Amino acid sequence: MKIQKKIYALAFIALLSLVLAACANEPDNNESGSNDSTEGTKGGDLTITTPADAVSLDPAASNDTPSSDVQRNIFETLVTQDENMEVQPLLAEEWEQIDDTTWEFKLRQDVKFHDGSDFNADVVKANIDRTLDPEVGSPRAIMYNMISEVEVVDDYTVHFKTEYPFAALPAHLAHPGGVMISKDQIDEDYAAMEAGEDAGSVISVNPQGTGPFKYDEWQPGQYVRLVNNEDYWGEPALLDSVTFKVVTEDLTRIAELETGDSQVANSLSPSDVAQIEGSDHLSVQAQDSLALSYLGFNMEKEPFDDVRVRQAIAKAIDKEEILSGIYDNVGIPAHTPIAPSVFGYSEDVKDHEYNVEEAKELLAEAGLEDGFSTTIWTNDDRQRIDTATNIQAQLKEIGINAEVRTVEWGSMLEQTANGEHDMFVFGWTTVTGDADNGLYPLFHSDNLGEAGNRTFTVDPELDDLLDRARQEGDPDKRLELYRQTQELLAEITPMVYIHHQQYLLGVDDSVKGLTQSPTQLLNLKEVSIEQ
After folding, report:
1. Which stretches of sequence are listed as region Disordered (predicted)?
2. pLDDT tens for each residue of 152-182
3. Phi, psi at residue 461, to the nearest 5°?
4. 147: β partners
5. Residue 125, C-beta contacts closer than 8 angstroms, at least 6 positions apart
6. Residue environment code for 377-387, b if the CB has 16+ CB neighbours within 10 A, otherwise e
7. What tens digit of pLDDT does each residue of 39-87 get?
8. Measured at the alpha carbon of residue 26, what is the angle toward residues 108 and 338, in degrees to the nearest 5?
9. Percent of the chain having pLDDT more than 70?
10. Residue-level pLDDT at 370
11. What is the mean pLDDT of residues 510-529?
């Protein structure tokens, strides 16, 4: 069997409580599940087929995986995460918490951006300030809104001042939203904004980072190509170029992999594993994830503003049927929004059990004993479409007639952010490995729409728990607050948790050193192609 697995560490629960010592977040260049440790020949051009195009190459203007996969090879963060989601140095060499609300970071002194400008403390301040700037309107601002000030101590030392104690700060700085952009380009982008252009108009068309690859070309809807940064401050990447090619149909991605038109198919449906494994030159690479797939409700719309309707639907959906019938049991059923390896997960929280009769009773209590008609939205992904179709069939048993609508990825992001949907099949990855990132963006009322709360959940008690949990320094108290949060969410039922998936890649055997993090992002710096 060619599937190779790298199980992410269950010991991560202790990580963020111990982070005071100086360890840091977000997938490193040496992460999970390599398909082969044997080195190939230096050089070569890697083509990765992907189901969706990047939304933007400006990190402050996007919050999606296709964009992040490209950006993380152009830009770098102060700190990164290894395969166990433990924080490690990157652009910062060391860090420590010097008081309850102050973190000090010491920066590397040998780093230049692709445009030749220097990386220093002024750059760090400019990047965080820009992400938090309301005029820029970054959906990733919620990752850093606890930062009250970035203080430049000297050229290579910065202090992050937070409004309250926040133990997860290093993990948040490893998030894709924490990447560093050339200050010269940030200044140019602001000048363009003053001239009437949109924020990111300069950065997205020619992004300048410090990463192992440089931007080369973007043909929207077709591909993004990066080339080797020969002047990289560390050990350079092995590949000459990487092309992220947009191929929306997963069967077409497999066909291109079989013919050699691409070397990596990202992602792969569980139902296609046998076909890949039957090939003499292809393998399946698997990685456990921190991701959640879910059916969300728009709680601003009738009848989903009635908790009895939401709970009825939750009880009417057999998750095991979806997991076995669509995902071939690749992954595990979800009972809370966060995966078991995420700090803050509680195994004590009880989810709604599958019970069609109880579902019908709840609908009757809500005055909808005859059911109603609605829609289920999802993007153009085969597994999500199949999930939506399965849910459609299951809901018919309780009298709900649901039309499945497939929406292009960019439109899906925009329209669900605007609250145009009824129900939707979607996903979220807790990229920091901490419950704050898995709960605060999705459910706090400050984050309605684009920032993550697409269910439009508004609940004062829930907001209070989330605020207290992110401000609590004691890890045991944080765990208790997150347990209470997950219990309250089970009662509110803003979504039906479906499963925590396992990421699958189709990979040509000539590709060596490829790994994928538990956050789904690909690690390409150590990749080579065996000639």
Report:
1. 28-50
2. 999 999 999 999 999 899 999 999 999 999 9
3. -65, -40
4. 162
5. 150, 151, 152, 158
6. bbbbbbbbbbb
7. 446 789 999 999 999 999 999 998 888 999 999 999 999 999 988 888 9
8. 155
9. 92
10. 95
11. 94
Angle between helices 475-492 and 435-443 (to 10 degrees): 40
> Is residue 417 helix, strand or coil?
helix
Q: With CA atoms as reference, report the closest residue to 170 among 268, 80, 301.
A: 80
Whose CA is closest to 23, among 114, 93, 73?
A: 93
Q: Where are the beta strands (DSSP E) in 191-281?
A: 213-219, 223-228, 241-246, 264-266
- Structural element, H or E, at residue 480: helix 475-492
Burial of 116 (0-12, 13-18, 19+ CB in 10 A): exposed
Output the six-digit token pair for 446: 């400050």
What pLDDT, on the 0 to 100 scale, is given for residue 153? 98
Q: Tell which wins on pLDDT, 421 or 4.
A: 421
C-alpha R_g of the chain: 23
The two structure tokens encoding residue 233: 């401050």
Phi, psi for residue 74 in degrees, rounded to 5: -90, -45
CA distance 326 to 437: 28
| pLDDT tens track for 228-272 | 999 999 999 999 999 999 999 889 999 999 999 999 999 888 889
The Cα 9–Cα 28 span in angstroms is 15
Cα(220)–Cα(203) distance, integer angstroms: 15
Cis ω for the linkage preceding 303 (within 30 of 0)? yes
How wide is the angle at C-alpha 159 spanned by C-alphas 153 and 161, nearest 5°? 135
Q: Is 165 exposed, middle or buried (0-12, 13-18, 19+ CB in 10 A)?
A: middle
Tokens of 344: 């803050």
* CA dist., res. 93 & res. 97, Å (int): 14
Quick one: pLDDT band at residue 29, thresholds 50, 70, 90?
A: very low
| Alpha-carbon separation of residue 168 from 145, 276, 424 (angstroms) | 13, 40, 30
Please give the Cα distance from 194 to 205 (Å, whole number): 18
Query: Rounded to whole angstroms, what are the CA distances from 160 to 78, 148, 425?
Result: 12, 8, 37
